[in-house]
From TrEMBL:
Protein name as it appears in the record: Response regulator transcription factor
GO MF entry, a single one: transcription cis-regulatory region binding
UniProt keywords, alphabetically: DNA-binding, Phosphoprotein, Two-component regulatory system
Cellular component, GO annotation: cytosol; protein-DNA complex
UniProt-listed SUPFAM superfamilies: CheY-like
Domain OmpR/PhoB-type: 136-232
Length: 232
């Protein structure tokens, strides 16, 4: 029997209650929020899936989805949009936000249950297939996250544009966290293909990285006469 917990966010109370009853009959734990504002007060870590209506008063489903996808703590929660809007643009917008499926109203309960099961099944499979990849390709220090596969840096969920050398430098420092790396070590690792590189080049790149990663810039430490490191 399924043990996943699902959150339904929709301002149609009767519809929510019908969905809750039928999903609970399938073995799921189900919570309801009648607005995005109410939903955003909840602890999202306990949810395996969110059924989210687009057209709501106040904060729309689209805006709520953007907020969730921008936060590292909630970005991976699968979302199924449920909406009466039926234009192709709405569907594309929802999917581009990272929604896992899109159900048009009016819908049958059987269809919703089938979609829920499908998305949860894909999510479990994806997590299983990427356990090793996540461990080897992701570096994370609190809200600072580097995806080594896609060469992407995010700070508290917001993407930060780093040059190739800046990205490699930051990754190198984090990979040797708690150690001081000499200028010679950094040059031979990051600028090994360059014929002539001035010491000032390292200083400039360190300054830029510190500035771009905001509060996490303080993690990069300087030891005069020795080099640079990323503190514990």
């Amino acid at each position: 029997m399924a043990t996943e917990r699902i959150l339904i966010v929709d301002d149609e109370e009767t519809l929510c209650e019908v969905l809750q009853l039928n999903l609970e009959n399938e073995g799921y734990d189900v919570d309801i929020a009648f607005s995005a504002e109410e939903a955003l007060t909840l602890d999202f870590k306990k949810y395996s899936l969110i059924l989210l209506d687009i057209m709501m008063g106040g904060i729309s489903g689209i805006k709520m989805a953007k907020m969730l996808k921008a936060d590292l703590k909630t970005a991976e929660i699968p979302i199924i949009f449920c909406t009466a809007r039926d234009t192709e643009d709405d569907m594309v917008m929802g999917l581009n936000l990272g929604a896992d499926d899109y159900i048009m109203k009016p819908y049958t309960i059987r269809n919703v249950i089938a979609r829920v099961k499908s998305v949860l099944r894909r999510t479990v499979t994806h997590k299983s297939n990427n356990v090793h990849s996540d461990k080897t390709n992701i570096m994370q220090v609190e809200g600072l996250r580097l995806n080594l596969e896609f060469k992407r840096c995010t700070v508290d969920g917001a993407e930060v544009k780093l040059t190739r050398k800046e990205f490699e430098l930051l990754a190198y420092l984090i990979s040797h966290r708690g150690k001081i790396l000499s200028r010679e070590q950094i040059l031979s690792k990051i600028w090994k293909e360059e014929v002539v590189v001035l010491d000032r080049t390292i200083d400039v790149n360190i300054t830029r990285v510190r500035s771009k990663i905001g509060a996490y810039g303080s993690y990069i430490v300087t030891r005069s006469g020795f080099g640079y490191g990323f503190r514990d």
